[in-house]
Amino acid sequence: MTELKHAAQLALQCLDLTSLNEADTAADIGALCARAQTPFGNVAAVCVWPRFVAQARAALPATIRVAAVANFPDGALDLNRTLAEVQAIASAGGDEVDVVLPYRALMQGQSVECAEFLAEVRHATRPLTLKVIIESGELASSELIAQGARLALMAGADFVKTSTGKSKVSATPKAAGVILREIAASGFRAAGFKASGGIRTVADAQVYLQLAEQHLGASALNPRRLRFGASALLGDIEAILSGAQAVVTDAAY
Asked: Domain for residue 71, yes or no?
């Protein structure tokens, strides 16, 4: 297997196939769930709005996890709303919650409030998998990105995730390196990393695979420690694994 095909297979296994358009319909989610089951294997999860969790869970085998977003995409410091969304996700059969850190509050120096917010969310989400989106493209410095990652890890997040995919700057290798260093230094050996937003090709994903291996080791290159939040990426994965020419189109995330 060539290096690119190996990267494509890893990316497929670690992919959170995502649709988070405001205008998403039940038909869109049905198509998403069908796409999640490819001739080359299944994705790790699908990621949808809370209102589609029950539909996705019913449409997918148990081996594909259902993730949904909370406090998304604005990341307001609104605990009541966020807990209500978490409860809706859990009640509908969701497996994972992707919650947005109140990053604007963090930028304003409200780190204690952000820590308390994340602690409450972690308590409410157990035993579901919790991914904390720090919105790294909006945080103005490596120091703030590192602080956001530390807050997520201290709260007990299972994954630190770069971005909502809705900001002008999404995942970048620089931000990923900062987050991965924090995970590696944290002592939370089971914590993982999710790169999200703007990852459209296997070549894009390969950069993050290399960074994850560099900081966390080759044993972390699996869906328990590494995820990609994307929708366009799947087309390139399938093209490479089938030997066809990749065609990358604009997509939902």
From this structure: yes
Q: Token match 């066809």: residue? A: 244
- Whether 224 shows a pLDDT value over 60: the answer reads yes
- Residue span of the structural domain in which 91 resides: 3-242
Report if residue 20 sits inside a domain.
Answer: yes
Residue 247 resides in a domain: no
Active site residue 250: no
Model pLDDT for residues 32-72, shown as the tens digit of each residue? 999 999 999 999 999 999 999 999 999 999 999 999 999 99
pTM: 0.95
- Could you tell me the CATH number of the domain that includes residue 72? 3.20.20.70
- In the residue annotation, 166 being an active-site residue is answered as no
Question: What is the count of structural domains for the chain?
Answer: 1
Residue 226, in any domain of the structure: yes
- What is the Cα–Cα distance from 251 to 208, expressed in whole angstroms? 20
161 is catalytic: yes
Q: Which of 98, 158, 204, 236 is catalytic?
A: 98
